[in-house]
Design brief:
alpha+beta; six-stranded antiparallel sheet; 254 residues; two-stranded antiparallel sheet; 7 helices; globular; 33% helix
């Protein structure tokens, strides 16, 4: 698995578009390898980048030129796919979704006349992943300060275990209240969690060892992925892909 060697990440360095592209591309390639992401759903950018349709954007919902440049270079998943605990992809090739993504704090992917939408996010912010079971933003990159604000499945589990968590006294109704982290380190940690099999794509989900709802089944699933399918070394990809849907049912108790 030498292709997944981590790039050189300088802590707290300035925003580096190429590094963000490299890390997300590595993440998607690993998910493809694990059978969690169909390769046919991923649109990789051409030499000149994606031809994005920005016609639905207004002055109010416009994006910083650095965000536009990043989107042109990032791989786009043409579907709704769970890529990490609590996180799913967002199709930026759809101009309507592209406009919708500027309202990062929305609560539904379908705007209605009865609900007042929140104000658009700053032009420097980009919704990388939304919630897999709702429309809460889960991973938001800001190119201005090179941070990611996150509300991932593991944080959600932590809060569920301790509802009186002091650091979560702020409203969760806005992504600006989420914990923030240096963007490349957070993305690298996502890759590391897949490599060490503490995040395990299986069927229609990505299970986490920290998810106490499925803990016994996930621990056994990790053992099988590492010992029986030799992840991340030789890795018997076809066998894992064929068997994992049955494992999903087992972990979920179906």
């Amino acid at each position: 698995m030498d292709n997944y060697a981590p790039p050189d990440v300088e802590p707290e360095s300035l925003y580096d578009e190429s590094l963000i592209v490299d890390l997300i591309s590595r993440l998607y390639n690993m998910l493809i390898e694990l059978g969690a992401l169909e390769e046919s759903l991923v649109v990789w950018p051409s030499t000149g980048g994606h031809a994005l349709d920005l016609s639905h954007l207004t002055e109010e919902t416009s994006m910083d030129s650095r965000v536009v440049s990043l989107l042109r270079r990032l791989p786009i998943v043409r579907n709704y796919v769970v890529v990490a605990p609590g996180m799913a992809t967002f199709d930026y090739s759809n101009p309507s979704y592209l406009k919708l993504s500027r309202y990062i704090d929305r609560f539904s992917t379908t705007p209605t006349s009865e609900r007042i939408e929140p104000s658009p996010a700053p032009g420097t912010a980009l919704l990388l992943f939304e919630g897999h079971d709702d429309a809460y933003p889960r991973l938001v990159l800001d190119v201005d300060d090179n941070t990611i604000r996150y509300f991932d499945g593991e944080l959600e589990t932590q809060i569920s275990r301790d509802l009186d968590n002091g650091r979560w006294s702020a409203s969760v109704n806005s992504y600006v209240n989420y914990p923030a982290e240096y963007a490349p380190l957070y993305l690298q940690r996502m890759i590391d969690k897949l490599l060490e099999a503490s995040w395990i794509p299986c069927g229609f989900a990505v299970f986490s060892l920290s998810d106490y709802h499925f803990e016994p089944g996930v621990i056994e699933l990790q053992r099988e992925l590492v010992e029986d399918y030799d992840w991340p070394h030789t890795f018997y990809r076809d066998a894992w892909t064929n068997d994992s849907s049955g494992y999903f049912d087992r972990v979920m108790g179906i």
